[in-house]
């Protein structure tokens, strides 16, 4: 289930905006969601995620620590898998010739999986700027 | 998923407008229900801030993507923060052309 939000931003008078955002990986978001929001026990949650219970616990504890750090240190949380379209990286569709910006996570590693949002073609070329 | 398309007129035969902030109409196309509406753009004649005002207007329809001929530098970061994808087309497509492409891409 894709996260509804792309992340959370802190607000308040003592925020230091230069701090690095905390990246919550998709599996960490899932573990947190299943355990703390859906109230599954760790055995059920591990089964749903198709991982062992100790692995689930490790992932879940990482999620908890990250959320705690964000709260205490006033840092932004970026949720991997939450859709963020970066304005820095653009691609061209060689079929319909549209130019579009891409999801932040896709632009870094999986350029080959980009699909044109207009015509659906996979015949895409990355370009540096628009 | 809803898509906003900047439009030169209020019919599907209208061309996609090359500007985002000052286009006279937006077509809001709902891919899931294959239905559309045309909304008049009140920011069209604003002296300043037409782009950001148009973003406010368009996001009230909960769109996930916007198709236009150009997006100004002031609104690119706004749309990025809102998680709305920008699609630029530079050829002479009509609203109907865009809707057909989106429909076949479902």
Q: Would you spell out the secondary-structure blueprint of this structure?
A:
The complex is a heterodimer of chains A (130) and B (106).
Chain A: E1 7-8, E2 22-24, H1 26-37, H2 42-49, H3 53-73, E3 77-79, E4 85-93, E5 99-103, H4 104-108, E6 124-127
Parallel strand pairs in A: 2-3
Antiparallel strand pairs in A: 1-3, 4-5, 4-6
Helix pairs in contact in A: 1-2, 1-3, 2-3
Chain B: E1 2-7, E2 25-30, E3 35-40, H1 50-59, E4 65-68, H2 76-82, E5 85-88, H3 95-104
Parallel strand pairs in B: 1-4, 4-5
Antiparallel strand pairs in B: 1-2, 2-3
Tags for this entry?
A: 130 residues, alpha+beta, Arc Repressor Mutant, subunit A, Rubrerythrin, domain 2, 2 domains, three-stranded antiparallel β-sheet, B: 106 residues, Nucleotidyltransferase, domain 5, 5 strands
Folded structure, characterized:
The complex is a heterodimer of chains A (130) and B (106). With 130 residues, chain A is α+β, with helices and mostly antiparallel strands. Helices cover 35% and strands 20% of the residues of chain A. Chain A has four helices and six strands, in the order ββαααβββαβ. The longest helix of chain A is centred in the middle third of the chain and has 21 residues, at 53-73. Chain A is flat and about 50 Å long. Chain B is 25% helix and 25% strand. A five-stranded mixed β-sheet of chain B has the order 3-2-1-4-5, sandwiched between helices. The N and C termini of chain B lie close together (10 Å). The interface between A and B is medium-sized, with 19 and 20 residues.
In short:
Chain A is an alpha+beta fold and 130 residues long. Chain A has helices at 26-37, 42-49, 53-73, 104-108, and strands spanning 7-8, 22-24, 77-79, 85-93, 99-103, 124-127.
Spans of chain A of at least 5 consecutive residues whose pLDDT stays below 50 are none
Tally of domains of chain B: 1
Low-pLDDT sequence parts of chain B: none
Domain unit count of chain A: 2
How much of the sequence lies in strands of chain B comes to 15-25%
Oligomer: heterodimer
H/E element sequence of chain B: EEEHEHEH
- CATH C-level class of chain B is Alpha Beta
Q: What proportion of the residues of chain A is helical, as a percent range? A: 25-40%
SS-derived structural category of chain B: alpha/beta
Q: Which architecture of the largest domain in chain A would the CATH scheme give at its second level? A: Orthogonal Bundle
């Amino acid at each position: 289930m894709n996260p509804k939000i792309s992340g959370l931003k802190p607000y308040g008078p003592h925020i230091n905006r230069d701090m690095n955002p905390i990246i919550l990986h998709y599996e960490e978001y899932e573990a947190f969601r299943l355990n703390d929001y859906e109230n599954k026990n760790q055995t059920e949650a591990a089964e749903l995620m198709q991982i062992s219970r100790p692995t689930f616990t490790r992932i879940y504890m990482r999620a908890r620590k990250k959320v705690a750090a964000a709260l205490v240190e006033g840092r932004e949380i970026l949720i991997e898998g939450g859709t963020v379209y970066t304005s820095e990286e653009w691609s061209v569709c060689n079929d319909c010739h549209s130019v579009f910006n891409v999801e932040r996570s896709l632009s870094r590693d999986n350029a080959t999986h980009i699909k044109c949002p207009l015509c659906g073609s996979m015949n895409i070329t990355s370009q540096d700027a628009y | 998923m809803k898509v906003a398309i900047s439009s030169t007129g209020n019919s599907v035969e209208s061309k996609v407008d090359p500007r985002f902030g000052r286009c006279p109409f937006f077509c809001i196309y709902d891919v899931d229900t294959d239905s559309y509406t045309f909304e008049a753009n009140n920011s069209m004649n604003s002296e300043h801030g037409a782009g950001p005002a148009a973003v406010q207007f368009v996001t009230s329809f909960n769109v996930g993507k916007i198709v236009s001929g150009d997006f100004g530098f002031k609104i690119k970061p706004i749309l990025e923060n809102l998680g709305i994808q920008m699609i630029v087309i530079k050829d002479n497509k009509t609203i109907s052309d865009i809707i057909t492409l989106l429909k076949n891409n479902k």
